[in-house]
């Protein structure tokens, strides 16, 4: 069986996955990618040593990339993914696993666009995959075998932790881990702004907030780490941290986060409906 992996569209997410595979030992000769602009193609080829074809220069770039591929990773925007999938039919191997990293595009939508019986795996990665600390959820489609799903899990394991979930949970996963890095960055912004409001220099506040969130994340990455236990370890009875946490609880911060995640889930479902 061929080992070729085709990345159609190579934005930050697909590039992160590709870089992780290369770092894990996948030979550059086994990877081909497509992008729109020739300048971006040159940049990626020079940075990673893989074959990159510009669709703006070569009309059949996607077909050329997919021909003979064992895995095809679709990384274009959701609005164009069904048309792209349909265009691959003439060259797509019947055994090739088509993996989508596009948010809100359902397995059924992809399966309708692809040849009958094509194995499909839907995934939901997040941006920390760029530094090898991603969380990637995967769901196998109607025609995806256990081996097809395992191949996808092995592929994504190069850039983080992989979890297999039923497709009906993908939108909820997206609300927690897909959007989650933005929540952490938002919290960091808020902490830095709080430091400024207390009279600290802006740059100092940013350093304090950023490095604190990074350090806390590393503690959470330790085996068996429990966020509630770690929080209690910093929260001395009747101390300063306890007073801050009390204000967060009083203002309903946990509920605000839950409401935000629910809104993200609802929007994902809206997009799926909009895509038909």
TrEMBL record:
Cell location: Cytoplasm
Gene3D superfamilies (UniProt xref): NAD(P)-binding Rossmann-like Domain, ProC C-terminal domain-like
Keywords, alphabetical: Amino-acid biosynthesis, Cytoplasm, NADP, Oxidoreductase, Proline biosynthesis
EC code(s) of this entry: 1.5.1.2
GO molecular function: pyrroline-5-carboxylate reductase activity
PROSITE patterns, A to Z: P5CR
Pathway annotation: Amino-acid biosynthesis; L-proline biosynthesis; L-proline from L-glutamate 5-semialdehyde: step 1/1
Pfam families: F420_oxidored, P5CR_dimer
Keyword Amino-acid biosynthesis set for record: yes
Reactions that this protein is recorded to catalyse: L-proline + NADP(+) = (S)-1-pyrroline-5-carboxylate + NADPH + 2 H(+); L-proline + NAD(+) = (S)-1-pyrroline-5-carboxylate + NADH + 2 H(+)
Record flagged with keyword Oxidoreductase: yes
Domain Pyrroline-5-carboxylate reductase dimerisation positions: 167-270
Family: Belongs to the pyrroline-5-carboxylate reductase family.
PANTHER family per UniProt: PYRROLINE-5-CARBOXYLATE REDUCTASE, PYRROLINE-5-CARBOXYLATE REDUCTASE 3
Described function: Catalyzes the reduction of 1-pyrroline-5-carboxylate (PCA) to L-proline.
The protein's name in its UniProt record: Pyrroline-5-carboxylate reductase
Organism the protein comes from: Sinomonas halotolerans
């Amino acid at each position: 069986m061929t080992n070729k992996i085709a990345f159609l569209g190579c934005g930050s997410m697909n590039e992160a996955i590709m870089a992780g595979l290369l770092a894990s030992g996948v030979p550059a000769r086994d990877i081909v990618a497509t992008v729109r602009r020739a300048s971006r193609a040159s940049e990626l080829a020079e940075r990673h040593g893989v074959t990159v074809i510009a669709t703006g220069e070569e009309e059949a770039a996607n077909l050329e990339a997919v021909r003979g591929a064992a895995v095809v990773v679709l990384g274009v925007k959701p609005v164009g993914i069904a048309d792209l999938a349909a265009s691959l039919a003439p060259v797509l191997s019947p055994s090739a696993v088509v993996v989508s990293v596009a948010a809100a595009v359902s397995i059924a939508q992809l399966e309708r666009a692809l040849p009958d019986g094509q194995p499909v795996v839907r995934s939901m990665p997040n941006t920390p995959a760029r530094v090898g600390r991603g969380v990637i959820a995967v769901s196998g489609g109607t025609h995806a075998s256990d081996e097809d799903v395992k191949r996808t899990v092995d592929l994504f394991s190069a850039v983080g932790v992989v979890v297999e979930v039923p497709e009906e949970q993908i939108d909820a996963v997206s609300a927690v881990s897909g959007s989650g890095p933005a929540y952490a960055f938002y919290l960091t912004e808020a902490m830095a702004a709080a430091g400024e409001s207390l009279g600290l220099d802006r740059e100092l506040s940013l350093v304090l907030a950023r490095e604190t969130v990074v350090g806390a994340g590393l503690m959470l990455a330790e085996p068996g780490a429990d966020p509630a236990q770690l929080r209690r370890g910093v929260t001395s009875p009747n101390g300063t941290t306890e007073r801050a946490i009390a204000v967060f609880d009083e203002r309903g911060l946990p509920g605000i986060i839950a409401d935000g995640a629910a809104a993200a889930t609802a929007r994902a479902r809206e997009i799926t409906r909009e895509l038909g």
